[in-house]
Amino acid sequence: MTTPEEAAKAAERVARESYGRLLAFLAVRTRDVAAAEDALGDAFAAALRTWPRDGVPANPAAWLLTAARRNQADSFRRSKTREASEPHLRMIFDEISATSSSLEPDIIPDRRLALMFACAHPAIERGIRAPLILQTILGFTAEDISAAFLLPAATMGQRLVRAKTRIRDAGIPLVVPEKEELAERLDAVLDAIYAAYSKGWNEVGDAGTPEIAEEAVWLGRLVVSLLPQEPEAKGVLALMLYAEARRSARRDETGAYVPFEEQDIGLWNGSQIAEAERLLRDASQSGPTGRFQWEAAIQSAHAARRVTGVPNWPTVLELYDHLVALTDSPVVALNRAVVLAEVEGAQSVLDDTMASLGEDKRMLGYQPYWAAKGHLLARARRTSEAAEAFTVAIGLTTDEAVRTYLQRQLARIRYSPPQ
Amino acid sequence: MRFMMLIHHDEPALAAAPQKELWADYAAFNEALKKAGASAGERLKPSSTATTVRQRGAASDVLDGPYADTKEQLAGYFFITVNDLDEAVAWAKRCPSSKYGSIEIRPVVDA
């Protein structure tokens, strides 16, 4: 006899361990992700009904897969019009039903990577790729994801539905691309995972939202395990682990923002940093080959400076030079400018790099641009301009702790007379 | 899946292209399409020859010119039958017109 609580717990455990794997397997032949989700969702509902009565089956994942495939076949048979118009689909279902009983539960083929490539396909709108991966591979609801992506749940839900319809109707394949296309397409998958991580980066331990950052790291590990020969996959995982290692050092005990150079390195997670170092070394044996490896190398250099206490700004600058050449991104150029100021002083950077960045319209609403500009102007003792830049930065900040930190910076320059 | 490949041209850019090479490329592309079992495409006369009709209630408009006043104009089409969108995209990239405009890929509804 199993209690409903035990049954629910068992279902939850399977959901956590095998949701994405089951969904990918169900969706890969039909390309109908939404229908596969419905079939799997109904299977979980059936589990919660029958497991308390009949006990949790020996292999819950296989039980769910069998139930979901039955639902999939049933709903397919019900849709008469499709049955008439798509005989090849019926053939697939007959085939699935035939193999259904013989499939060994331990060898449910892992098609999650194929599903991720479909979710991050160039024909899918860029902004919805990360949410789509979080939903299909991890089983997050639209409500869970909408909080992290600052969208109303209904809007997020509609965009997810639209993307899934598009996978089915536009003919987007659920396959891992051929060798010659793999690198370019893998970038889109890694971008989406990193976008998910970046959303999660701002959660500093408040309850309520799921730990998106942790899940993004998990997805990174999954891609590394499925494509162990791809250096950029290791690069993005290393990058996320460097950032993740510093999570608890980013706020002090009162919840106030602590800038990188003042963080207590005793609070850094040593084993995550060691793992990141290992991954990066492994990926870049003969020099970094992609953007994420360069970014991870920069993180590594920053961490080394804090740990050893030895300034290494020229090394960091050199890494940024490579990254700027590779990405041509104003955000990278901004970060490089801050490092350049450590090497050449704030004044020349303000007159040169920062001035030309200021002409880029995208920087005008970009909080880090104004915060960096404020810091550089303060260091160059251009007090009134610095106050103006900090004020704009404060206006663009959504994080309470960061706003308080910037207000302190502003107060400090206002009350220290120019020298 | 069957896809209709709609060729949209930037007409001035096409006119400025080296014509001999362009049509040689097109001949080769059409040959490749035929070998792959696709039905041959058709080329349309320039958008200046187009006429657009709209009916709104009782009023109807017959206008000279194409449907939409954009830089790129519908210039031709062909059909292909392939497994998925990626294969259709590969054909679109091979089409010489993708350099002088764009190829819109539309899945055909099964009859």
Report on this model:
The complex is a heterodimer of chains A (419) and B (111). Chain A is mainly α. Among the domains of chain A are: 4-108; 329-419, Serine Threonine Protein Phosphatase 5, Tetratricopeptide repeat, CATH 1.25.40.10. Chain A is 72% helix and 0% strand. Chain A has helices spanning 4-27, 33-54, 60-78, 80-85, 87-100, 112-119, 126-138, 142-148, 153-169, 179-201, 212-226, 231-245, 270-283, 291-308, 313-327, 330-344, 346-357, 367-379, 383-396, 400-415. In chain A, helix 1 (4-27) packs antiparallel against helix 2 (33-54), helix 11 (212-226) packs antiparallel against helix 12 (231-245) and helix 18 runs antiparallel to helix 19. Chain B is an alpha+beta fold and 111 residues long. Chain B has one domain: Dimeric alpha+beta barrel (Alpha-Beta Plaits, 2-Layer Sandwich), CATH 3.30.70.1060. Chain B contains three helices and six strands. Chain B has a four-stranded antiparallel beta sheet with strand order 2-5-1-6. A two-stranded antiparallel sheet of chain B has the order 3-4. Chain B starts with a strand and ends with a strand. The mean pLDDT of chain B is 88. The chains are: A mainly alpha (419), B alpha+beta (111).
